[in-house]
UniProtKB/TrEMBL annotation, chain A:
Record localization: Cell membrane
Lineage of origin: Bacteria, Bacillati, Bacillota, Bacilli, Bacillales
UniProt similarity note: Belongs to the binding-protein-dependent transport system permease family.
Pfam families: BPD_transp_1, BPD_transp_1_N
Domain ABC transmembrane type-1, first and last residues per copy: 95-306
Main localization of the protein described in the UniProt heading: membrane
Membrane topology: Multi-pass membrane protein
Organism name: Oceanobacillus luteolus
Highest taxon listed in the record's lineage: Bacteria
Bilayer-crossing regions: 9-30, 99-123, 135-155, 187-206, 241-267, 287-313
Keyword entries, A-Z: Cell membrane, Membrane, Transmembrane, Transmembrane helix, Transport
Protein name (Swiss-Prot/TrEMBL): Oligopeptide ABC transporter permease
UniProtKB/TrEMBL annotation, chain B:
Species this chain originates from: Oceanobacillus luteolus
Organismal lineage: Bacteria, Bacillati, Bacillota, Bacilli, Bacillales
Signal peptide: none
Residues annotated as transmembrane: none
Name of the protein this chain belongs to: ABC transporter ATP-binding protein
Membrane topology: Peripheral membrane protein
Length: 320, 336
């Protein structure tokens, strides 16, 4: 197992380096640079050139890349011209919001997917299964942002069960129970909306794994031992079917990232996704670059995490 | 007859294909006695596995008619609960492919131990562990304490088949069904596994159904042989009777296809077993594969009849039958 994890870690490092180069190249193609918006438009081009020279913006690309990545590693992503504050500070405020939103969404996703997938797979081709499969098709066909808008309109505005924007009610002191509760209330509806749509692929995946595993030879062996139906499921089918879901985990994170971008925007939830969308629209490129890098790293680490989980639970990888 | 262990009467197992049910096991009657090895031979597709799975009641979507009496229990009528009490205990099975027959995520020890948990719940953990080690020793697995905590993928095919056998014999079954237990293995390993089954047979005092398409295996292991073709039993006889005086043309073609010394050309009867849907359900099912025989020579719907004590054949005109290579009738040792 350790061998596998070490090998897997060794692959992750070049992945991240490659990602950072891609992001850097992307940043180079964006109009403007670190200077844009920082200086008075009336400043003469000569002086601009001097400042450029001083900031190293005329250096060859690899020197600039090294400077940039060096900054990024130490947490310096430059300035946001829109907020007139360091990108790092800006992100720091939001990263917790997005983290909690993603975590709660992920938990909801599994709470929905595991029972539905199991029922659907175990009783495949019954009306129960067809109902669940119908839901997954609907989930695939419905764009997240439309679904989120409908949820917001019904449960936020019509019923008034949930707050309709922000991440916490104003005037509560951080750390108090009321504060935590209010935070939870604020992320409940966006998390639920995202989970209901995002979970359908996991439901389908789990279903097909179970339908597949059901017909494997070792299940017949288990029956031939005299194992009851429930024992066959609990001891043999489920474990073998849930395993590949662990491998799916990394992809869920990638899906979550793109999900938060719309969801946070729609629910006025101050997280990284909303920040990303606003920054793109406002051409706040230093923020965009930093966020793309962070999202990419999160996706890579997600894949790493699922491989590590897999290596712990699957003896075929564990024992090597 | 106290010696009778299993009595199958008019068993028909049908699968649903498209709009209708088609019989893969067609009106089969067989018996197995205690301490007896019944060999079942037949080409691939003749319904041997379907028969074995019917006895174990492991088909999930099949229509089963007839009787399968294991001692006093009719397995066809038995409830799932009753079946679960029998399966793995007095009735067990060895499967064809050891590479897929074991749970990839479960330790070997736990997989063997599960049969004990299910049927010997009063055993303590320690007793169970000891019994599993004993079984691993019995089936010839070296370093059993080590193998106990290994996973299937760490073992070779032959070792895995030994584990499958250990599972099957864990509770000393009365009836053991081995469905082509060596087909998926290398030739050298095949011999070892057969030796093992042979050895266990002596010790176990059980009835064994040994399914194979290898007549050499039958000659060596079986007491009686049933030849199966297209879902039907076409001939049943004591093993030496069958080899000395095979009557059904299908049996004879099978015997001819065994390579013997001084004869390097295999006689393989042309054609294959027809699929369930395309199987002629009236007349002799084998007729299509011996077109050189005059149609009128065959009985309309041949039934099994006893030609000498214990020797049954589903063919009345076997004496008129010949293979082209053998020459005309009489030259073959077909006439009884
Ligand atoms: N579950 C099933 N559904 C439909 N047809 C089946 C099923 N199992 C076996 N058959 C068919 O029944 C016939 C006998 O198969 P099988 O018992 O596996 O033969 P054998 O074990 O002698 O090779 C074959 O034609 C096969 O295609
Ligand atoms: S009845 Fe005729 S066709 Fe059938 S096995 Fe006998 S000889 Fe062949
Ligand atoms: Mg078979």
């Amino acid at each position: 197992m350790w061998k596998f994890i070490v090998r897997r870690l060794l692959v992750t490092f070049p992945q991240i380096v490659l990602l950072s180069i891609l992001v850097f190249v992307m940043a180079q193609f964006m109009p403007g640079d670190a200077l844009t918006g920082q200086v008075d438009p009336n400043v003469s081009p000569e002086i601009k050139q001097q400042i450029r020279e001083r900031l190293g913006l005329n250096n060859p690309w690899y020197v600039q890349y090294t400077d940039w990545i060096g900054g990024a590693v130490t947490g310096d992503f430059g300035q946001s011209f829109r907020f007139k504050m360091p990108v790092t500070d800006l992100i720091e405020q939001r990263i917790y919001n997005t983290f909690w939103l993603s975590l709660v969404t992920l938990i909801f996703m599994y709470i929905i997917a595991v029972p539905l997938g199991i029922i659907s797979g175990r009783y495949n081709d019954t009306w129960l299964d067809q109902t669940i499969t119908g839901y997954t098709y609907l989930g695939f066909a419905t764009p997240l942002f439309i679904f989120a808008l409908v949820m917001l309109w019904i449960f936020g505005y019509q019923f008034g069960w949930f707050p309709t924007s922000g991440s916490v009610a104003p005037g509560l002191s951080p750390g108090s129970w009321d504060y935590v509760w209010s935070k939870f209330q604020h992320l409940l509806l966006p998390a639920l909306s995202m989970a209901l749509i995002g979970t359908v692929s996991t439901v389908q995946y789990l279903r097909s794994e179970i339908v597949d595993t059901k017909q494997r030879d070792f299940i017949i062996t288990a029956r031939a031992k005299g194992a009851s139906e429930s024992r066959v499921y609990n001891r043999h089918i489920l474990r073998n079917s849930v395993l590949p879901i662990a491998a799916f985990f990394g992809w869920e994170i990638t899906g979550l990232i793109s999900g938060t971008i719309f969801i946070e925007r729609i629910f006025g939830y101050p997280g990284m996704g909303a920040l990303f969308l606003e920054s793109v629209l406002m051409r706040d490129y230093s923020v965009v670059t930093a966020l793309v890098l962070l999202f990419g790293v999160a996706a890579i680490l997600g894949a790493l995490l699922s491989d590590i989980i897999l290596s712990i639970v699957d003896p075929r990888i564990r024992i090597k | 007859m106290s010696n009778r262990l299993l009595e199958i009467e008019n068993l028909t197992t049908s699968f649903r294909i498209g709009d209708g049910y088609y019989a893969a096991v067609d009106n089969v009657s067989l018996t197995v006695n205690r301490n007896e090895v019944l060999g079942i031979v037949g080409e691939s597709g003749s319904g041997k596995s379907a028969l074995a799975f019917s006895i174990m009641r492991l088909h999930n979507r099949a229509k089963i008619e007839g009787k399968i009496n294991l001692e006093d229990t009719d397995l066809v009528k038995a409830s799932t609960n009753e079946l679960n009490k029998l399966r793995g205990d007095s009735l067990s099975m060895i499967f064809q492919d050891p590479l897929t027959a074991l749970n990839p995520l479960m330790e070997i020890g736990a997989q063997i131990g599960e049969t004990l948990v299910l049927h010997r719940p009063q055993m303590s953990k320690k007793q169970r562990y000891d019994r599993v080690i004993e079984l691993l020793n019995l089936v010839g697995i070296p370093r059993p304490e080590h193998v106990y905590q290994q996973y299937p993928h760490e073992l070779s095919g032959g070792m895995r088949q030994r584990v499958v056998i250990a599972i099957a014999i864990a509770n000393k079954p009365q009836l053991l069904i081995a469905d082509e237990p060596t087909t998926a293995l290398d030739v050298t390993i095949q011999a070892q596994i057969l030796d093992l089954i042979h050895k266990l047979k002596e010790e176990m005092d059980a009835g064994i159904i040994l399914i194979t398409h290898d007549l050499g295996v039958v000659a060596e292991m079986a007491d009686r042989v049933a030849v199966m073709y297209a879902g039907e039993i076409v001939e049943v006889a004591e093993v030496h009777t069958l080899f000395e005086n095979p009557l059904h043309p299908y049996t004879r073609s099978l015997l001819n296809s065994v390579p013997t010394e001084g004869q390097d050309k295999l006689h393989v009867i042309q054609g294959i077993v027809p699929s369930l849907k395309n199987l002629p359900r009236t007349g002799c099912r084998f007729a299509a594969r011996i077109p050189w025989i005059d149609e009128s020579a065959h009985e309309e719907n041949p039934v099994l009849h006893e030609v000498s004590p214990g020797h049954y054949v589903r063919c009345t005109c076997h004496s008129k039958f010949y293979f082209p290579e053998e020459g005309k009738e009489g030259e073959a040792n077909g006439a009884s």
